[in-house]
């Protein structure tokens, strides 16, 4: 999606009935922290396939008057934002002014969106060449028959039933759909509980919150027999296979480390194929050490910040601290494993000078191998309000920050997905755009 823009695109607004229009009296802006700012023309790309647009009730878009150059509100309707598809990182949030009674927005990302001539545009970069979650790559008939075959193959496996009925057919989870197509990354949720209380948890939201979680949390503890039964055949037969503990439909997998450890040992008795990964909050370094000794290949630790106060204000951890997640990364490094952070990108905070310095320190201290630059799925006003962040300080720009980190750490990989073992051990830059 090479950018061919010769000028700033125009603001979008909705009529509150799901119909979206452009306002050609206003150039679009972007949001960083609490501020609306002009977006450099070269930062806009066509809205990638699989992206969608949201109308933002109770919010007015902010634009730049094409005549006066003044910044002002679009009074023609509600503001509009984009949910950009996986493999892309948003550089600016949607810029809007909320009215006092504006409802809290659900847990999705709200990237700036605009229009020019015949296209929707977003300020974003493609950060990952791997095509595993391209929406054009999913065939519903193939998925449906995969579900029937595997449910028949594992009639008593509660986890395969959960992956089929909930993850694949209800939540349309890309990882679960890939599992039922027999390829790439297979999700293995295992924990009904969590030892953190993230403000924007996608699998559990307290009753008193006005928003709901995107999916329900797993309601049972799978046995290692259930886990091994379907993961071994996947590792033996799928192209570029990996199995990943720690999914959006569960709590914290490290609370199930004994079951996971037993599963890894049993899996490796049957196959050495592929990679065994854990997506985690990284809270229990001793459990991580036990998993590494059992054969864990890679870890992805999720974080909204490389700064202890910002991290702990969001995760609200029970009986662990920021230092533990840093230690978990070091433990996997020391066992020769692959380490990533699942870095929730919030323009204005992620690219603040303080955050940049903290991230440099984290990369140096842990020997981190990869940053997965993920869009933060949260209402920007709600997040900053709940975090009591009223001044984000000076910021570099997300794109500029990525460039600086890349220059200083050229071997540090940028992406969006957990790499298969072929990438970890082989030619990382090999062509994964065409599996
Ligand atoms: S670590 Fe994950 S499951 Fe736990 S509260 Fe945070 S988002 Fe939810």
Structure characterization notes:
The protein is an alpha/beta fold and 435 residues long. The chain has two domains: 10-126, no CATH class; 135-434, TIM Barrel. It contains twelve helices and 19 strands. The chain has helices at 140-153, 158-168, 174-181, 224-237, 257-270, 285-294, 308-315, 322-334, 353-366, 380-386, 398-408, 421-425, and strands at 10-14, 20-32, 35-38, 44-46, 52-56, 59-65, 71-73, 78-83, 88-90, 96-98, 114-116, 119-126, 185-188, 242-245, 275-280, 298-303, 338-345, 370-375, 413-415. The strands form two sheets. Strands 1, 2, 3, 4, 5, 6, 7, 8, 9, 10, 11 and 12 form a twelve-stranded antiparallel beta sheet that branches. Strands 13-14-15-16-17-18-19 form a seven-stranded parallel beta sheet. Strand 14 (242-245), helix 5 and strand 15 (275-280) form a beta-alpha-beta unit. Helix 1 packs antiparallel against helix 2 (158-168), helix 4 (224-237) crosses helix 5 (257-270) and helix 6 runs parallel beside helix 8. The model has no long low-confidence stretch (mean pLDDT 96). Iron/sulfur cluster is lined by residues 194, 196-198, 201-204, 251-252, 281.
């Amino acid at each position: 999606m090479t950018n061919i823009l010769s000028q700033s695109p125009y603001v979008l607004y909705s009529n509150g009935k799901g119909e979206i229009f452009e306002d050609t009296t206003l150039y679009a802006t972007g949001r960083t922290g609490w501020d609306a700012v002009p977006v450099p023309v070269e930062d806009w790309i066509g809205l990638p396939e699989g992206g969608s647009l949201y109308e933002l009730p109770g919010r007015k878009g902010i634009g730049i008057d094409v005549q006066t150059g003044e910044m002002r509100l679009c009074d023609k309707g509600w503001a509009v934002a984009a949910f950009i598809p996986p493999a892309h990182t948003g550089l600016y949030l949607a810029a809007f002014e909320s009215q006092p009674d504006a409802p809290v927005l659900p847990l999705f990302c709200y990237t700036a969106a605009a229009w020019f001539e015949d296209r929707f545009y977003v300020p974003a970069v493609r950060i990952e060449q791997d095509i595993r979650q391209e929406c054009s790559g999913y065939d519903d008939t193939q998925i449906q028959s995969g579900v029937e075959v595997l449910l028949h193959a594992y009639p008593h496996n509660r986890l395969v039933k959960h992956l089929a009925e909930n993850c694949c057919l209800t939540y349309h989870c890309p990882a679960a759909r890939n599992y039922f197509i027999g390829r790439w990354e297979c999700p293995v949720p295992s924990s009904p509980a969590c030892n953190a209380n993230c403000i924007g948890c996608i699998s559990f939201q307290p009753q008193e919150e006005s928003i709901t979680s995107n999916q329900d949390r797993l309601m049972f503890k799978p046995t290692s027999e259930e886990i091994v039964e379907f993961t071994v055949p996947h590792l033996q037969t799928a192209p570029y296979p990996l199995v990943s503990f720690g999914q959006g439909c569960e709590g914290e997998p490290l609370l199930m480390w004994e079951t996971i450890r037993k599963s890894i040992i049993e899996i490796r008795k049957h196959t050495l194929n592929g990679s065994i990964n854990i997506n985690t909050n990284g809270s229990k370094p001793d459990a991580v050490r036990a998993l590494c000794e059992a054969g864990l290949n890679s870890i992805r630790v999720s974080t909204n910040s490389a700064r202890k106060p910002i991290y702990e204000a969001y995760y609200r951890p029970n009986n662990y601290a920021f230092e533990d997640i840093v230690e978990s990364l070091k433990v996997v490094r020391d066992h020769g494993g692959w380490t990533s952070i699942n870095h929730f990108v919030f323009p204005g905070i992620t690219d603040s000078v303080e955050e940049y310095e903290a991230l440099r320190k984290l990369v140096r201290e842990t020997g981190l191998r990869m940053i997965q630059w993920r869009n933060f799925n949260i209402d920007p006003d709600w997040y900053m309000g709940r975090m009591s962040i009223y001044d984000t300080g000076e910021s570099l720009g997300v794109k500029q920050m990525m460039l600086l980190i890349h220059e200083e750490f050229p071997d540090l990989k940028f992406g969006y997905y957990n790499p298969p073992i072929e990438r970890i051990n082989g030619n990382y830059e090999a062509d994964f755009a065409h599996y």
